[in-house]
Amino acid sequence: MTNKFDLTIISAESKVFEGKVENILVPGMVGDFLVLANHAPCISSIRPGFLEFSEGTSDKQKYFVSGGIIEVINNMVSVLVDSAVSGEKIVKEDITNLISEVDERLSAADTINKDDLGLRKNDLEEALKQA
Amino acid sequence: MPSLKDLKIRIDSVKSTRKITKAMQMVAAAKLRKAQESAERGRPYAEKMRDIVSNLASSVKDIAGDNKFLGDGSDCKKFLLIVATAERGLCGGFNSSIVKLAKSRIAELSSQNKEVKILTIGKKGREQLNREFESLFIGHVDLSNEKNITIDTARKISMDIISRFEDGEYEVAEIFYNKFASVISQIPSSYKLLPVSFNEKESDASNVSFNFEPDEDEILNEIIPKSIATSIFSVLQENAASEQGSRMAAMDNATRNAGEMIDKLTIDFNRSRQAAITNELIEIISGAEAL
Predict the structure, then answer these.
(1) Is B209's Cβ below 8 Å from some Cβ in A?
(2) What does DSSP assign to residue B1?
(3) Structural domain spans, chain B
(4) What is the CATH number of domain A5-86?
(5) Interface contact A74-B208, CB threshold 8 A
């Protein structure tokens, strides 16, 4: 008997996914982590990367997210993302576009923002390798 | 008494006006549906975001260490009023009702000796406020090139607002817009964007202690700009839907008025034509009788 919990993935422009899942692998800001049922309540920010979860025993679903927030409370997991692309659809171009966007902003940004954007770029390049 | 020709010209011109207003009404109706749909799609995100922020704020409340974004804004002196209006006119009282609300707020704040600054989104609000409060303006966002409002637009605006906040240009930010109640009713409203205040009412999650990753302060610094962008996004979407709804109602009225006017003018036209005919007949008959 496996425990399932409710997962909702919402992007700013639409609802991406809603349903019961067994587990979800989240690219957290300080490291990847896996959420199972009865996880302690937590709020974490998400870096750009791949979100992986499985509804049943076998098939996994993969989404590329460009950063966001996850809230876990009483077996209700809500993921708020800036944008999400389904793993099947994801093309490397999308990520490459994002990287060039960050590059553009890097050249325009002042020094304080540069660190953040540089980190973001690293994350994106990492994701590109995985895609 | 205008001549027959004058009447004919007027009827034709009112008819073409009616055609235009009718077309505008139908365009507005189509756009309204789209705007409403996208507003509805964005709603779950905005709601969840509000939930998380209030959960966060209530858990952080107990912990010392003030975040710069949090506070109740009670004894602040510098206010920023963000006035979100439309880029186009011909939408009834849509723009002026927002401006009216903003003006009354400006008057209220100035009477309390507060410093007021204005940032406008949309051309029409700027035009109306520029006449009186030109010196208070610190910025303007032009949306005329944006066909549909995207979250990116909202993000850009919020980044600007936040950097001004961090520079100490203002302490409290309020945004003015039209809340979309229904197609025929839009309520001018204001909403406090910054600082984020603690949620007073107890939510069911307020007793839960969360694990934060990274720590509260960093999460707050990350999530608050996001939640502000989301708020601005939903405000802009509500505004867009309200604008179209308001325009639809205004154009519906205009079309109806034009119809009434055409009816009246047509009656006038027919009367004066009949009068002319009767006149001619009388002339012919009296001419014949005189023979």
Answers:
(1) yes
(2) -
(3) 26-249
(4) 2.60.15.10
(5) yes
